[in-house]
Amino acid sequence: MFATISRAIAAIILAIALVATSVLFDQRQASAQAGPLVLDFVLFDAGTNAPVRTLYPDHDTIVLAGLDGLNIAADTIGARSVSFRLDGVLIRTESNPPFLLGSDNNEGDVYGFELTAGRHQLTATPYSGTAASGEAGTSTSIDLTVIEAPTLQGLLLSNSDSAAELALLRSDNVLDLKQLPRNVAIEAGIIANPGASVSFQWDDDEPHVENNAPFSVSGDGGPGRLRPLRLELGRHTLRVTVWSGQDGTGVASETVSLSILVIRSNYVVNTTADGHDRLPGDLHCEVTRGENDCSLRAAIEEANAVRAAMKIGIATPQGESLTLELGPLEISSRLSIRGNSYEPTTIDAHGRSQILIVKQRAVAHLHNLRLVNGDGSLSRGGAVHVAKGHAYFYDSEISDNQANIGGGIAVSRGFIKLTRTRVNGNRAGHGIASFGGGGATQRGGGIWISKRGVAVIDSSEILENEAIRGGGISNYGSTLIINSTIARNRAGSGGGAIENIRVSTGPRRRGNLVISYSTITENLANQSARDGEDRRTGGGVRNIGGRLRIGSSIVAGNSNGFEPRHEYYSPDCYSTVAIESQGSNVIGVVDEACNTTGVAGDRFGTGFDPLDPQLQPNNDYYLPRRGSPATDIGIDVGGWPSFNCPDFDQTGDRRPLDGNGDGVSRCDAGAIEVRAFS
Predict the structure, then answer these.
(1) 15, containing H or E segment
(2) How far apart are CA 302 and CA 310, in angstroms?
(3) What pTM was estimated for this model as a whole?
(4) DSSP-derived pairing of the beta strands 615-618 and 621-624
(5) What are the tens digits of pLDDT across the range 361-370?
(6) C-beta separation of 345 from 373 below 8 A
(7) Residue 30 per-residue DSSP state
(8) Which residues of the chain are under the pLDDT cut of 50?
(9) Which of these, 292, 365, 306, lies nearest to 175 by C-alpha position?
């Protein structure tokens, strides 16, 4: 009745049968002592008077099609009669074996019993005497699901050589040839009586009927082996129908249709030239027919058209840049792009356009890329604009780009995460001396995050960017900075490194900023006198109404150009609301403008006695010297994983180390761990 969904399950059933044989022997021994027993239930075909199969214990499904009437027998030990109840109603008591729910004529002719489609419970109680007399044994019940027609239980993708199961297929499937073994097959698991068949139709081919299990789309390839199914790139339709009789005859199940998209997920970019894909959606990355020239734009357009998770590798000669001539690259699907692993692959817009736009529903994982010379002067994001999607950068660089908002990156309504990524030398606006536009324009030299945006900056550098406000970062949304360095950024007005703004109106009053184990140094604000003095504040961080939480970080050595006695002197931090210190911070100058009070482990200086963090510049990092006040002061903040000591510092060296020689390893404040004391 039941062609299993896999041969592995058949092996399990065989094992169960062996166990059942052992149990049966034990039960027969025990029956003499325990009274009559019902061992199991057996399905009979009333038309042939022959048993069809033993029903599974506890629950089973019976298919009416293919049976010329049915009956069910109770197989017993030590019983001389059996009473049957169906759905709690006594049907009959049988005193002559075989003990049948629908009885027989005692001459081998089994009567049919009308069992309607639906769910039923059958209970049999054995007795040691006839007519339900003598000792009663334990009642045995089975739940039955009765259906009119055979049905398809499922379709299994398997390795046709080894019979290993790969996946259960659904209504809509994507099969990646790069992830599959060379030879695969598709098997149908059915619920049907013996003698059933299965019809398969692949696309518009003639239907193929399989009469014997295993029921495979491509047929049998010999004992224990299925014939491989030839999978061609493209979208296919598989239609499956189960029949109660051989050769596609009898009662048919509902036809099940599945969509199967066959892809080869890896596209290899082999040209530095820019060009559109010849036919997006044909699963071939090619600019010119027959030339096999796959540009990065063509690969992305193919991925967008297919809407499956695609992988794009760049295999152009090392050191040669990919040039954009046809506008920004737009991503609207799930994909990954991986540049050269030895040296990031450069994508150069030559000032003609932005470089990447990540659109709604897109999820882009971007590795080993260098995005340069993008221009979003009339838009947001010189190199990258995350419009509504998700972007993840790894081991990449975003340099020398410009835009009106977000010189390097703009996050309008999505999510971005930077991991081991450098954002360097980008500009928002028309230079720090220009104040045209007002409002949100000319903000975020490196990165701008809107109130609907989210950013995570992990083990990365934000360096030498410039804007009117927020030289490195301008955050209106929610941003987490951890294990990162923000240095040498410049703002014409306020927020040399970072500005954090909470808007006063609207439903999304964000401006949430978390800074943990990071270093903010050598940033400059007040680089132009054209804005009001009250706005030229916060050489390091400028917080206007937002929620700023900071822990185990260094904010020192920054400047906003005013003298210590000036009303708006705020070289390292300025905040209109209280900054929430999580402890163990090193802040060069803390006064009324900074608006924070120290907690456990904090080290603060004043305007007339700034605290020197004793940092040694080393390329793009700032390493604490021996004796730095940042050494071994980091703490874990319970309930706030973002403020707990990371396992590694920004350079990838392990944390914590013993930096002061006291024999105890503790994390240092800032992005870089002091090398172990020796």
Answers:
(1) helix 7-34
(2) 9
(3) 0.76
(4) antiparallel
(5) 899 999 999 9
(6) no
(7) H
(8) 1-33, 435-439, 677-678
(9) 306
